[in-house]
Amino acid sequence: MKIGKYETGKFVRYLRENPQFMDRVLTFYSSFDLTGLREFFDNLDFSSPLPPQPPRHKNYIENQAEIDRLVREPKAYPEKVENKDYLQDDYIKELYSESAESYDIIWGGEWVYETRKETMDSVEAKPGERIVDVGVGTGANLAFYPDGCEITGIDYCEAMLQRALERAKVLRGKRITLELMDVLNMTFSENSFDKVLSFYFLSSCRDPLRALEEIRRVCRPGGRLVIFDAIKSDIDEVAVVQYLFRPVARVLGPIYLEFCPPYLLPWDSFLDLFTLLAKVGFRVEKVKATDPYRTINIIQCTNKK
Question: Quick count: other Cβ atoms within 10 Å of Cβ 283?
């Protein structure tokens, strides 16, 4: 498989022969140093061993044995990437259930708050509108909706939803309904909602295409879908890093962020979201990347049906 001018097979072989290459991958992923990443790739000699240096990335050092095992698995790097059935529901539910109590502590920093606020502003929720928040999690978005909206939040992880229920109790004046439900099989009728929010959900979903089909079904014609998520970058060098990191993210989560403990949030770091949106029939209206690597994006779409 090629990503731009890069042959992924070369990188995979090199990584397996030089496991500490993943330390460099993680370091570049966390630093968002695009110039440094490009220079590193330009000077990489696949025929020579990786020049020795002490590992630098905290989560690589602490999880080296498991990371080395994951990248050496025979099926870790398929030639054809499918964004379906790569993640498993039972594993996702297990880890999200275990992290429900600590989730907001880890992801409650100022940078997350600002991004969340900007995403919620993109929804442009108005009184009287019907809005569904898919994968509502602990309900951190609920406070940002204006009074007068009919807000429905769904999640299939009971422990996360319980946290959202506790949040909703103190949000007086807001019309909030929270339901235990799988986005892949929503029980709502067609055209039930004016707007849909998907906040860091699709990259952690077993079948994001099926989820988008269901979202389109319950969203009225001309309705809005707003997505905040980690997706495959359109920068080739970054996409190579995401591909190499993919089998690690599937099990250990976003450990390229050194403050993030392992086994917290499994996700597919190589989610080709724009291809899926086009397949389903959503028209992308606006994209705003929130990082220099263009991996974390706020995406506004219109339902074309």
Answer: 12
